[in-house]
Amino acid sequence: MSMNMHHEKASGRLEQEARQDGWIQRLEQARQRRDHLEMARLLLAAADQAMVEAGPDDETLEHAQWLLARTQRSVSATGSHAEGIRATAELLEAMDRLLRMWVERDRPAAARLAIEQVRDTAFDLARRVERSEDLGLRCTLLLRTADVLERIGDAVDAQSLRARAFHRLGSALGGVDIALAA
Predict the structure, then answer these.
(1) DSSP letter string over 42-105?
(2) Contact 40, 87 (CB under 8 A)
(3) Whose CA is closest to 84, among 31, 38, 116?
(4) What is the 8-class DSSP label of residue 81?
(5) Could you give the 3-state DSSP secondary structure of residue 79?
(6) Alpha-carbon distance 113 to 124, whole Å?
(7) Radius of gyration (Cα) for the chain, nearest Å?
């Protein structure tokens, strides 16, 4: 290995460690402030980065899964305001991406665990979004959640969420019955 390539690898490692140190400091500051939303955003960004950087081994994806579990705890503490609900939706989509990565790697045990986490988060999001006063947010996220449930093979619950979204929308339009095509 040439001296220049060795220096570039060492430099890249140092930059990554510096970014990680800054991330850890920001996470600790958010924890001290009890800013669960900021903690969730930082953890989610780290999980996304781990998924992007995942190599042929499963260690990085396992780390991403751990980060997403931590994100879920932080998101759960954010309450039902719009930003907390949006963070839950972002978490659901990240969990869905991780699930697809486990499936692509032919890791059925990890995929089954990921499916359960996706399903639990989807139902949590559906419960939380119902408390939102924002009809657009409510309907949009119910439909996005239904799409995720459909992808994991839960067609019945996906259809139920779609029906709820269209019922809410129809009610807001003065009782218009918006039928779903089966």
Answers:
(1) HHHHHHHHHHHT--SSSHHHHHHHHHHHHHHHHHHTT-SSHHHHHHHHHHHHHHHHHHHHHHHT
(2) yes
(3) 38
(4) S
(5) coil
(6) 17
(7) 20
Token digits of residue 80: 């039902």
158-175 confidence digits (pLDDT tens): 999 999 998 888 877 766
For the chain, how many residues are written?
A: 182
180 phi and psi angles, rounded to 5 deg: -95, 135
What is the DSSP secondary structure assignment for residue 152, as one 8-state letter? T
Taking every pair of Cα atoms in the chain, the longest distance, rounded to a whole number of angstroms, is: 73
Whether pLDDT at 129 is above 80: yes
68 closest CA partner among 97, 32, 29, 107: 97
Which residue, among 150, 148, 126, has the nearest Cα to 139 in the 3D structure? 126
Structure tokens at 166: 């269209």
Place of tokens 């419960």: 127
User: Which string of DSSP letters, residue by residue, matches 5-44?
Assistant: HHHHHHHHHHHHHHHHHHHHHHHHHHHHHT-HHHHHHHHH
- 68, 94 in Cβ contact below 8 A? yes
pLDDT in tens, 10-28: 344 434 544 566 878 888 8
